[in-house]
Amino acid sequence: MRPSGRQPSDMRAVTLERNVAMKAEGSCLVAFGNTRVLCTASVETSVPGWLRGKGQGWVTAEYGMLPRATGSRTRREATAGKQSGRTQEIQRLIGRSLRAVVDLELLGEVQITLDCDVLEADGGTRTASITGAYVALVDAIRWMDERKLTKGQALKDSVAAVSCGIYRGTPVLDLDYLEDVEAETDANFVMTGSGKFVEIQGTAEGAPFSRDELQSLMALAEQGIGELSVMQKAALGV
Amino acid sequence: MRPSGRQPSDMRAVTLERNVAMKAEGSCLVAFGNTRVLCTASVETSVPGWLRGKGQGWVTAEYGMLPRATGSRTRREATAGKQSGRTQEIQRLIGRSLRAVVDLELLGEVQITLDCDVLEADGGTRTASITGAYVALVDAIRWMDERKLTKGQALKDSVAAVSCGIYRGTPVLDLDYLEDVEAETDANFVMTGSGKFVEIQGTAEGAPFSRDELQSLMALAEQGIGELSVMQKAALGV
Amino acid sequence: MRPSGRQPSDMRAVTLERNVAMKAEGSCLVAFGNTRVLCTASVETSVPGWLRGKGQGWVTAEYGMLPRATGSRTRREATAGKQSGRTQEIQRLIGRSLRAVVDLELLGEVQITLDCDVLEADGGTRTASITGAYVALVDAIRWMDERKLTKGQALKDSVAAVSCGIYRGTPVLDLDYLEDVEAETDANFVMTGSGKFVEIQGTAEGAPFSRDELQSLMALAEQGIGELSVMQKAALGV
Amino acid sequence: MRPSGRQPSDMRAVTLERNVAMKAEGSCLVAFGNTRVLCTASVETSVPGWLRGKGQGWVTAEYGMLPRATGSRTRREATAGKQSGRTQEIQRLIGRSLRAVVDLELLGEVQITLDCDVLEADGGTRTASITGAYVALVDAIRWMDERKLTKGQALKDSVAAVSCGIYRGTPVLDLDYLEDVEAETDANFVMTGSGKFVEIQGTAEGAPFSRDELQSLMALAEQGIGELSVMQKAALGV
Amino acid sequence: MRPSGRQPSDMRAVTLERNVAMKAEGSCLVAFGNTRVLCTASVETSVPGWLRGKGQGWVTAEYGMLPRATGSRTRREATAGKQSGRTQEIQRLIGRSLRAVVDLELLGEVQITLDCDVLEADGGTRTASITGAYVALVDAIRWMDERKLTKGQALKDSVAAVSCGIYRGTPVLDLDYLEDVEAETDANFVMTGSGKFVEIQGTAEGAPFSRDELQSLMALAEQGIGELSVMQKAALGV
Amino acid sequence: MRPSGRQPSDMRAVTLERNVAMKAEGSCLVAFGNTRVLCTASVETSVPGWLRGKGQGWVTAEYGMLPRATGSRTRREATAGKQSGRTQEIQRLIGRSLRAVVDLELLGEVQITLDCDVLEADGGTRTASITGAYVALVDAIRWMDERKLTKGQALKDSVAAVSCGIYRGTPVLDLDYLEDVEAETDANFVMTGSGKFVEIQGTAEGAPFSRDELQSLMALAEQGIGELSVMQKAALGV
């Protein structure tokens, strides 16, 4: 039934490749099927102005898409002179999601910026970004730990994300682009490795959805994020 | 327990005042307690470029905040030279929410813009905006109906929104500013008058939340939006 | 002869409602007929860079218009990415007009920003803004006086403004929108309560005007501003 | 008494040099003392969108200042990314002033842009700009007349401008920079060759001014503009 | 003598990997040592306005750098709101270089955009971009040829680029980052496969250079570009 | 053969007029035939942030063009809201060229900004700018020397620039606009008075060029810059 031939609860093939950017303190090339995102984590010693002198750190994210990540060329935001509302919405989501699993006080007064640049877009770029950025973040914090820059165990949990949606009447996990454009309802879930919710964003693209439908999507998400957590651990060797 | 003395399931006093902007085709001054938003609906005969010639209409929204709607003066976005990510996120949400209850084909080739300008901000400006903008939208569509500009009954349902959150461990309905800054979890719900979900946005501000906590918030939201729908009907005389 | 049926020397109904914005140190909702402007005064402890350390304050203004204050929707300046030349011209005028009646040294090293946001536009928005902003400013300075933040009596005089014009050959006071678009000459006068000029801006929209015509406009302005000063005093209870 | 040793009613040495820009349809290098402005008139066959197809033309102006026209270097507006409020105010004034003496219908469907670029600034740049731009405009219209591009005598009158002010208690004509920064009142007058007013802008920089003071400034302006009109005629050979 | 241990006339290891972007009509991941650039070619049926209806095509380029391509994180240009002067200079160079080997008339009325996004920067990003973009361009033109979209053999020659410089007194080929920051003279050469020059840019970073020094650099460039041309042919299977 | 009737190795008439801007520390109006550029040098006591406290100075340049310097009016960059890529490329070139002959340490911690504003453009504006800006720079450094602001002889050499090109198959010196638009190859050379190269930029506009052609252009450039150096010395009285 699904264009890819997947079962409703099948995720696409996921890979998490570490140390792909020589100069970053942490990096991960994440693939959810054909969607590929290069995530880098940069440790900087200056924090945003409003945090200065408070002895705590910050984790933030920026999101971008190469112009030809998409089927037809998308205009470069640097040329347009500003980031679109969509881009800002996504990078705010990534930042919030990662901050949810970091103890900013134990991080010390540094800022870690996660750059998520989409090399190829086939649906689910924001959920792949969160999932891969977590891996890059862990490596950056390990890099800091080795240099005694943190004040303790700054990571409180792991975090991953997946999309679900109602496609032709059936709840399905991990929408690809073909499903995404057609889905009646589209929801993104961000959860911790310990199974709690960090963020839920559900949108009725076509028809409003019922509480029962939302429950089905939540169940799929819990399963998918469980699988992603296992893959993150494997990739990180923990 | 709540700073305002409200019970967990108490909404603030809500008022919906119609016809407050002489020149707009529809308008509503909505108050959720001290939060006050002026919503106007403007009918324009030109649609966005990508819709031209398709015989269907569009509903969009813009959101703004007067500089002194807030406790300390906020910089005017027109001076800053751009809308913040938060503003864009909110206006995209308002637009999506209203489009969910409009049949864009029956609307005919017009664009209705909902401007939601916050005169006073005390938490819940986006949910008040959606609730009030719906009332302004109805008046604008009635204005069109009277002039035979629509092609049929363009409104499919009503829509309203409310926030819920976990405040000091307890799920509460309709957060005000004092609660909002302190809440561990903050969720916005947009639902139709017929009780279906249009949008859910839940965010763990402090600690990740469980599925049970989310269920409690959903139950509060369903109750609150039920009350708002009744008030919308009363205001609109239906 | 006038579209509104007014006599040439009749002003529109003027109201000045104080304390309309809960969070501002001073506020006034001013109406000149159907033109309504919400004026707020914000006291901030930081002054512009070039004044820092000079022991004196500053008074400035910003002007905005809600998109649907006008007959057809006006594009939001925050979306356009900049303030129009007209907006900047008006806010510079409001700022200069108010500074003319304030002793900046006695104000102490604070900045007071007057935000004038037009809720409904029917001609004369800049003159209504000045007239209302003065009332908001007085309340803000009183607020400072109560907290012993000023160094003495910072207000030197009152200030108000009105437009005049030559409409169908006749000099008339306080142009509304219908008169404004048709007037041959349009002039804005800003005067103190003691009857001196702060600013005169006269423009030949249609045909150049003679010295005699200017004298007639000046006489009308003196009368109108006299009336406005009385209303300002009444509103302020002095 | 005046820093330059001039009498109160003395203008500075004024020169109007035509044909200084080889490529423009009209041009004039105007000097008011040390203030020097290069004015060019460009005839373009496209009019602003809102005028298209109406069979009438448009006259507009842009104003700029070379970075080192001033005592200390001023930031280039192209680098700053926008024109300041002051620049926009001035160029709007120049445009309005010139349109006052042009019959836009007889001009035909063309746009004439007057660029006024200040090479050296010593007070009165906007009045020098208007005075010089008029000369450039006449040459551009003559250029059009020679090519039978106008539909008749498009020039209705001449126009010139001068500043006056109250300097150390005395009304003086044509303020230079040293006087300008110190003047209590500063007024710019734009008048036609036939002695009527096109624009008056009077501002109390220090203390509000009386009606009598304004009358004195007006008398000085009438005299000064009379002299400028004679010089314009001489320069244009009429 | 060179930090990398290379001989003066040694290039770094160069690889050219085709078909790395699924959705682009042509793509090439080029590496010059640690410098890696992802080049995509996008065929679009709309040409710039000034070319419309002339029956000829256009080739243009855009250049970007991922924030963490560099040793310390570089600010994203989309966030800064504009492309830097350096970026614009580079993308103009890439565009000119590729247009030099394309017959724009035979291309037909299409635009090919070469996006060169630097994944890792270690000196020579602009020369690697040109070399890789050529390969992507060839694939895009082949894609067009297969669909009979071109009007003939649009490629006139091949093109590649390399940098040379005087490093510690010795002319060397293909500078890496460590050499680049220290070089007295830095020159970029763009040449065709047939051995002619398309572009030369030589800059004295430290000390001005003599004609003899320039000759040595030219000789190195000719050798290096000869090698690159062979590699391009091999990669393209011609 | 040349449109101007010049021999291939003839430069246009060059003039260098000093002290044309009263307020600048150095200034020069340079003409290369009909191309005229006003160059001013401004000494400022603040250096860019990254140089602060390093005890050395900086020399930078900005380039602009009056709207009607060109045959048809060019849009003002201040109105467009940004400098074009071409403008930035040129001003970066001017800055680099002048820094090549200045000892920044002996300059002391000041910044000298060279503003090059094109009054009339007829080809070669960047080479005229460099040649004239050098003269303005010398005067600014002399001004500093007189005030004992430099730490020694900050000027190491003189610098000038000229363009050459292949026009209808013949290498020619100092292209004017008519030649520039038609030239197959266009090259700009910047050289010191002592005959060394500071910058070479050669571009194949039409057809790629051979090494021999480049040699001919270089020979012409050496001759032309030799002549310009003599004129610079004469203008500066050295």
TrEMBL record, chains A, B, C, D, E, F:
GO biological process: rRNA 3'-end processing; rRNA catabolic process; tRNA processing
Listed CDD domains: RNase_PH_bact
Keyword terms: Nucleotidyltransferase, RNA-binding, rRNA processing, Transferase, tRNA processing, tRNA-binding
Gene3D superfamilies (alphabetical): GHMP Kinase, N-terminal domain
EC numbers on record: 2.7.7.56
GO molecular function: 3'-5'-RNA exonuclease activity; tRNA binding; tRNA nucleotidyltransferase activity
Record domain Exoribonuclease phosphorolytic: where: 11-140, 158-223
InterPro entries, A to Z: ExoRNase_PH_dom1, ExoRNase_PH_dom2, ExoRNase_PH_dom2_sf, PNPase/RNase_PH_dom_sf, Ribosomal_Su5_D2-typ_SF, RNase_PH, RNase_PH_bac-type
Reactions catalysed, as given in the entry: tRNA(n+1) + phosphate = tRNA(n) + a ribonucleoside 5'-diphosphate
Residues that hold phosphate according to the record: 86, 124-126
Highest taxon above the source species: Bacteria
Stated role: Phosphorolytic 3'-5' exoribonuclease that plays an important role in tRNA 3'-end maturation. Removes nucleotide residues following the 3'-CCA terminus of tRNAs; can also add nucleotides to the ends of RNA molecules by using nucleoside diphosphates as substrates, but this may not be physiologically important. Probably plays a role in initiation of 16S rRNA degradation (leading to ribosome degradation) during starvation.
Family label: Belongs to the RNase PH family.
Subunit structure: Homohexameric ring arranged as a trimer of dimers.
Protein's UniProt name: Ribonuclease PH
Organism annotation: Devosia lucknowensis
Gene name of this polypeptide: rph
